Each structure stands twice: as C-alpha cells, then as structure tokens.
Amino acid sequence: MQKNIPFKGIIAYPITPFTENETVDIPLFKQLVERLVSSGSHGIAPLGSTGVLPYLSDEEKEAVTVATLQQVAGRVPVLAGVSNLTTERTIYHAKFAEQAGADAVMIIPMSYWKLTDEEIFRHYEAVAGKISIPIMAYNNPATSGVDMSPALLKRLLQIPNVTMIKESTGDVQRMHYLRKELGDEVAFYNGSNPLALAAFAAGATGWCTAAPNLIPELNLDLYQAVAGNNYEAARDIFYRQLRLLQFIVSKGLPRAIKAGLKLKGIDAGYLRSPLQPLTAEETGQLQNILRDCVAETV
Amino acid sequence: MQKNIPFKGIIAYPITPFTENETVDIPLFKQLVERLVSSGSHGIAPLGSTGVLPYLSDEEKEAVTVATLQQVAGRVPVLAGVSNLTTERTIYHAKFAEQAGADAVMIIPMSYWKLTDEEIFRHYEAVAGKISIPIMAYNNPATSGVDMSPALLKRLLQIPNVTMIKESTGDVQRMHYLRKELGDEVAFYNGSNPLALAAFAAGATGWCTAAPNLIPELNLDLYQAVAGNNYEAARDIFYRQLRLLQFIVSKGLPRAIKAGLKLKGIDAGYLRSPLQPLTAEETGQLQNILRDCVAETV
Amino acid sequence: MQKNIPFKGIIAYPITPFTENETVDIPLFKQLVERLVSSGSHGIAPLGSTGVLPYLSDEEKEAVTVATLQQVAGRVPVLAGVSNLTTERTIYHAKFAEQAGADAVMIIPMSYWKLTDEEIFRHYEAVAGKISIPIMAYNNPATSGVDMSPALLKRLLQIPNVTMIKESTGDVQRMHYLRKELGDEVAFYNGSNPLALAAFAAGATGWCTAAPNLIPELNLDLYQAVAGNNYEAARDIFYRQLRLLQFIVSKGLPRAIKAGLKLKGIDAGYLRSPLQPLTAEETGQLQNILRDCVAETV
Amino acid sequence: MQKNIPFKGIIAYPITPFTENETVDIPLFKQLVERLVSSGSHGIAPLGSTGVLPYLSDEEKEAVTVATLQQVAGRVPVLAGVSNLTTERTIYHAKFAEQAGADAVMIIPMSYWKLTDEEIFRHYEAVAGKISIPIMAYNNPATSGVDMSPALLKRLLQIPNVTMIKESTGDVQRMHYLRKELGDEVAFYNGSNPLALAAFAAGATGWCTAAPNLIPELNLDLYQAVAGNNYEAARDIFYRQLRLLQFIVSKGLPRAIKAGLKLKGIDAGYLRSPLQPLTAEETGQLQNILRDCVAETV
Description:
The structure is a homotetramer. By secondary structure, chain A is α/β, with parallel strands linked by helices. Chain A has twelve helices and eight strands.
C-alpha cells in the first residue's frame, strides 16, 4: 500500500506575530510565511509550537490557517497544526484545516492529565475518522507532557491516514527504533534541531524546524548534502549551524526567532504574555552566533 | 503585617461532571459540591486539576465558579482555579472569580513554552494587580511543565496578595525549604496526596485534595490528629488511607474519583474526551481498596 | 517469629581518618569512635559510606572493624559495613566481622554492572548462609548504582537473618511502602539525613547518620521528641539542624564531617585521594551553619 | 602540537573469563584476545567494563595486562584499563601498564563519593605525571557515578598526555559539543554501542566496543563504509547489527558476550559472582538476534 506522505526535506515553521496590544498580526504573518517559501523551504507548518498554537483562540487559529494557505498558494505543501486538549476541538480544527485546503495536519496529544495509550489511540482514531488528509503524529513529551512509546506510535500507524511521525524527544535511539521496527517505508521526521545530522544519518525523511526563519541556506544545504550521500560535507555544514540550533531551542523558539529576525532587520512584531522578549544579554549572544554562522558559511 | 490566609485544614476539590454528550452538568456538579461541604471539608476548590480546568471553555469555567459559590453559600471559604496559558485570560477569570464572591484564587503558571522566572513573576504580578482577594501560587511541574524554585516562590510572596503556596512536586524537602527559608508565618499547602503525613509533620497549613469525594472521614481524622499533636494516631490513620491516595493519583484524579463515586452509588456523570473511564480491572482494584479503607476504619 | 533487631534510635557513622601520607590512622579513629559513644549515640556503624569503605584495602577494613569493637567494648551495639563488589569478598568480610564480635553487618549491593534482582537476592543469600548475626540490607542507588525495589526488599526479608532495611533513596514514599506492605514489625532505618523528620513520622525504627560527629545533642533530642509522640517539639528541633544536614549531604559526608570536626577543634586527620578537603569558602559556610545550630539550640 | 593518538577504527574489548571456581582463566583469555586480533579489530582494550576490571584483585589485573600484551605481540595497539577508586592504586596500575608495554591507558574517574571537578582534574593530573604514554579519559556516568561535563573534559585535555576522550553517556549531543568546542583535532571515541552510526556521523575517531567478540565483520564493515563517506551503506550495515548492540548493552556486556560466544560454539568460561549467566529465555532471544544478523548480512 502506498502511504500518502506529502512532505520531505526542510519543513519550515513560522512564528505567529502579534501587534503591540497582543492581537494576532495577520498581514505581518503573511510576510513571514512568504520569506520561508521564497527562500526555498520544502513545506510550511503553521500553528506549531513555534506558532504558539496553544496561546491562540479558535478564531485566531482559523485566521492563521487561512492566511498560510492564501500566501503559500500551492507552491509547497502546508502542514497545519490542529492540536487541542479535547478531542472535540481537535476534530473541529482538523476539519477546518482540510476544508481550507491544508495538505496534512499535525497532531500532538496535548495533555494536562497524562493520557493512557488507549486514550491517545482513540483520540487519533476519532480525528482521523473525520478527515481524509493525512496526519502527522507528533511526539514531544517536553511540551505535551506525554511520551508516546515506539509501540504506541506503531499502533497509531495502523490508522489509515496516520502516515507520518514527528519525533522530538531529542533521543536518536527513538528514530533507530522507528526505522528498525516499522520498516523502511515509515516516514519519520526530526523535530529536535540539534539532532538534525544524527536524524538524517538514521534515515529521517525530513526536518521540521523554525531555523529557516533565520538561516535557510544552511538548513537547505544540509539537506542537499545528505540527499547526495555526502556526509563529510553534511557534517561541516551541520557544525556551522549547531550553535544557532542549540540557542533557539534553549531560549524557546518564539522568543529566539523573533529576536533573530529583528537582528536581521525584519519586523517580527510582539509576543503574547506571559512570553517576554529575550534579554539584552541574550540578544547579544544571538547576534554573535548569527554573525559566526555567516562568517563560517562564506 | 498580617497576611490574608483564608484556608486551613482539608481543602476539597470537586470533579467537573459531564452529561453523556460531554457538556458540563451543572446540577450534578452542585450535588457533588454539597457532599463535600456537608461531610465537613474546611474549604472548596473548584476548577483545579481535578475539575479539569484546562478542558473547559471560558463560559463553562464561569458557570462552574458561579455554581460553587451558590451551593457553598458562605458555609466554608471557596478557592477558585483561574489558571490559563495567557496572562490576559488569567486576569479575566481572576476578576470574574472575585466579582462572583470567591475568597481566593489559585494560579498555576501553565506553560507550553517553559517560562522564565521573570515571565512567571510578571504573570503573577499582572494578575495580582487587578484583584484584591489573595492568591495561592501553585507549583506542580507534572501538570504545568514548569517547576518554580523555592527562590522564585520566595520572590512571588513579595507580591502583597500572593499569600499562600501549594506545593505538589511530591518532594517533602521543598516544604522543609519553604518553612526554613520563608519562616513560620508562610502558609504552605500540600497538594501531593501520598505526602499528606510528611507535609503535616513539616508544618503544612492545609491539604489540598480530591480524596474527600471518597473518604472524607479519614481525611478529616488525619487533620484532627495532627492538630492535636498526636502523631502516633496520625500515622495509623494515614496508613489506612495510603493505598487509596496512591491509587487516585496514579490513575488520574478525575478518572479515579468518578469511578469511586460510582462504586459508592453516587452519580458522577461522564468524562470529557480524550479522558476515558477506568478499565474494569482498575475499577475492581479501586473497589478492593475502598473496602479495605472502610474495614480498617471500623 | 521474633526478628533479631539490635538497633534503634541514633546509629552513628564515624569517618575513617588518614595520616598525612594517606594511611589509615587507627589511634585517631578510636578517639572519634569514643566521642560518638560518650555523647550518647545508640549504635556505632564503622565502614559505611562515611567511613569510605570502598577506598580501603582488605587489611585496612579488618583493622577498622577490630578497632571499633575494642573501643566500643559492648557499651552499644556495633553495625559493621562489609559490602564489596564480589560475593566472595563480601562473605569474607562478613565472617570476619562476626568473628570479631560485631552485632550485625550492613550490606549494600555494590554494583559496577547493574545487578539483576536475582543476582542481588543470591548475593545476600550467599552471605547470609555463612554468618549467624543479622544483616541490614542497605538501599542507596546514588552510591551503589542499583535501586532495590520495595518488592525486592520484601523478598530479601524472607532470608532469615536479613532483618533490617536501611533506605537512603531520599524518597519518603519508599518508607510508606515498606511500612504498608511489610507490616508493623519490619524494622526500617532512614539513611537520608534531610528526611529524618519525615522518616520518623512514617515509623522508622532508627536514623543512620554521620551528623552525631558534629551535633549529637540535636540528633538525640529529635529522637527523644519523636519517641515521646511530641511532634511539635520534633519539628522545631528538626528545623534547627536541617541546614547542617543538607550541607553535609551536599558536600559529601567524609569531607564535610572532617571539616566540621576541625572547626570544633577536633583533629580528624586527612582524606585519601582523590577526595580533597572542602574549599575555604565551603568551610566558611559550614562554620556559619554550625554557629547557627548552636545559637538556635541555646 | 601533534597529539599522540594511537587508536582509530574499531577498538575491541575482551571479556575476562573465569574458571568454574571463579579464578581468572588466563589461557582462555588469550584465546579470546586472539580471536579479536585475527578477525581484524584495530585495537585491543583489556580491563574495561567488559573485562570486569573492578571485580579483579591487583594481581589479577596485572596478569590480564601482561597476557594481552604477550598475545597481541605488537600486531595492533593495546589500551589498558587502569581505573581505581583511589589515586594511589590508579597510579600503580598505570605505571605497571606502561612498563608492560601498553600503548595507552584508559581511566574512568570511578567514584563512590561523587567527585568534584577539582578532584577529578587532580586525579588525572597525578596519574599523568607518573607515566609517559597517552591517557584516554573515559566518561560513563552509568558505571562511574560521575558525569564529566564537556567543560571538565576540555580542561583535562590541557594535561599533555591526556589526548583522547571516550564518551559513553549515550547522548550524541555530547559528541557534537566536543567536536564544536574542542576543534577538529580532538580525538573522541564512542563507547555507546547503539550510538555507533550517530557518533561516526558526528566525527568520532573510533568505536570502543565489545561487539567484535560476536560480530566483527559487521562492526568493521560499518567503519569501512564511514571511512569511505558512504552513509547509505553505513546506515544499512548499522541497522543490521542494531538489535544485537541494544541487546548486549541492556543485558550487561560480560553476561551477554559470554552467552553469545557460547552460542557460537566458543568456550568463554564462567562469570564471577554476583554476576550470573543470562537466563534461558534471554539466551534464546540472543540466539534469534544473532541468527538474524547473519541472515541479513548474507
């Protein structure tokens, strides 16, 4: 059976910018999406963690999905985040994304109360039954509070339109397990930036990352080197961007990407409270790291 | 300065029951609150983790707060949960709770992106500035995703109406630190059920617990023994209820309390998906544990 | 069946002092043991972690055991540490301790390769079969590298002369489990200094501690308050000594006890490399903590 | 400055076999070493964790070192393990190994009491000052109990004859840090078997492993593919051996290697208590895994 897998390569995550009074700034969001598409990313993923999905109202989420699809306009596939604590709201947003034209939806089993495997399976099954586009199951215990075991991920893949797995535990052994247990045909994606090289070495189909907001050339060059089976080149390119990848993860992607865009002269709006901008000291560190990336690239 | 501390003893957490089609069942909720008041709890805390706060819409939260205050009718103080991912929504619900007549609000720094200490402080400060009733700062990294250090909790207590701390890390050393560093006058509450005895030994002012939905006498007897400086009795009473406390924590409070109420012949409605009822095997375990509690009590 | 349980109350752990060229200083060791006995400790435990057991040669261990028994001369019971990585050496030292006159031996399942439950059980069983005095099974994953589950500890207690358990995970829930599952008659001892109050509240028979080297009155007063069912007094006494207990644990007992003895004007010799003395800054902290303990006691 | 780095590629770790009455079996040990050399390993490392170093007496360690050097007879370089809890014993064995003809020594900062960075640095410095051959600093918190930070490893490399680092935390990010912070010229080795692919991708100079006792061809083929910049081939070869690598790690290398050798018809002697053989069920699993490795290789 041929699985429906619309993504590979570099899947870029835009931030959701806000106006000074903390409402979503849709025109600015479209500009940020355009930068990602025109600089060569292979897919666009709005409403991820980078896009502060859980901090948005239902109406705001819908506006962001629609704006993404309008701006991308079919140039690359769109992966819409539709995760919610309740099954009912997840279904609602998954259906909205499908109707709006998204190529796939990404779902993390958000949890306040730690969910059982059975609850997670039913949650995915309930959503999958209501849409026809494929689902990327996303495992990231650091933000969701629940760690989906390889065995559970294997079970989720039995649901027909759950076709992709995004792994963000930061443990490359998970990817080894997925590839070994689920076979060559499973499409797994890396969501842990500092694992980019190890994940591609392990056979990842793509890299889900906010880094293309700041260093799209380095991200794309890494993928090209990997695709060309040239790991000596891949290793050099990876080490050139590693400090930036570590920094944006350690500081929180929305904060760090916004600060980096501003350093590059690009308006990225405001954050929504309680999230606050990087401190002056942190911004100085980021400036140095960005400068070093460019210097090493030349 | 005399701090405003309206709670001590056993602060009971009601579940939020749902109808079969997963809407909030307010009449049934009022019955469950009445049971807690009439069986002797010293305070009522709606919209906690037990009350599945994060799974409710704004309107549902408001209805639950109003229903609690109507039913309690001043017999014991009410502590309303108003936590939200965004500062704006937290302020909104804190103001609503105050206007509705709550005696205090409980706030956990919910986080999807791990918050910095500065962000958490500003979050509490922003809410505290908009209300006059006291705030209980709630630390529970297992559900909030962020662990407030003793140093941060100490800083939060400098905000005038942050007067109480609820500690749910499950580490009794945290309570030792709070008492040692913050002095005798700090009011700290235990939110980890299996730590009830150790927390009272460490000087906790109260115990925040969902257990009075099932075993109010044992919970109240423990507090009475402690208040009477009779630890040999306290130890016996604690060990009689320990297995139940461990069980309801390990299975998730909403699931376990609902199942326990049903075993006691009390209607507790439905859960909201993705949360599912205990399995038949788990329900059987709970039945045995409840029976043993009663047998040992007699 | 009446179990053979020779210890209760405060079981004191002497350090093993060295001469300047790092050989064991037996005469000085005897003086340090004498201080512990004459200040009122209820038992003496040489060759524990505090006594740097694993850093000593076979001959040195034997000399320390003999010196302890000579100096204590039957005034209080002696618990000799005989742990070793291999079963053969553990049996050797257990037999030696019995022949020398020790009242019991303490055995931690030291492990380089993480031992299976079966290996641990056979290890204890092999040793127990070669001696007639009782064994205290000691669980301390931080130093041994293996965490014995409550289920395994329960199994070990089926060996006739394994009659005591020393718990040093620092998790009071373990003690709750031991008491609840193994019954009132099991003798469990607390080996985590900052848990002293919580452990006694949970029903611990004794406290295994190096603190009597520095503050014997406070340690003994805590036990007396507990034995008299006066927890309000116990709490006050506990909080007076808590900072010292935390300090000696965080800095490593041999280093901290040696530094504290020197501050009290008592010769404690040298450490064996790679262990090094506390820094001047750490020693200053300890001086302040010791002074505060005394001030609060007066 | 050109660092003295005598190892690259596959560095093979022999087990230390025992006779039925648990004495070291030197003639059998020599046969096992011969197998590793003649099947193509690039270096031999006796007295590692696999060789149960900490379970041996001083005399036994010396006999094993001498036997290795006699059997290898200069065909490949020899890396002798000389770790000990005390600095004095570590120096003793390091000098012995040098005099016996070892090419380098491996030292892990064994610790019962968690060592400070200063203590670890002095320990290495003291040993390094007494020998002229290079030292491989070995970081493996799971067995040593202490985790050397990248900053400390960087400091250790300032000691002239500390020229190599073996990283066994199982976290590929540590290797990224070492390469990024310490520069291209640092020689780091992977000691975590399931990380073999990720470590080579990250630039590891060699792989320290017991696996060549069982599957030397697969281990060597992986290195050849990597050295040839052919990562597609490397990935395939890695996945063929992954289950075996995971199995031998999870069961403990001495137990698993001994069982595997026996399954291959090779006498591997006995273990020293408390270590016990794999169970029949575990041996059956290993048989299946070994069979699958061979089948996939063909």
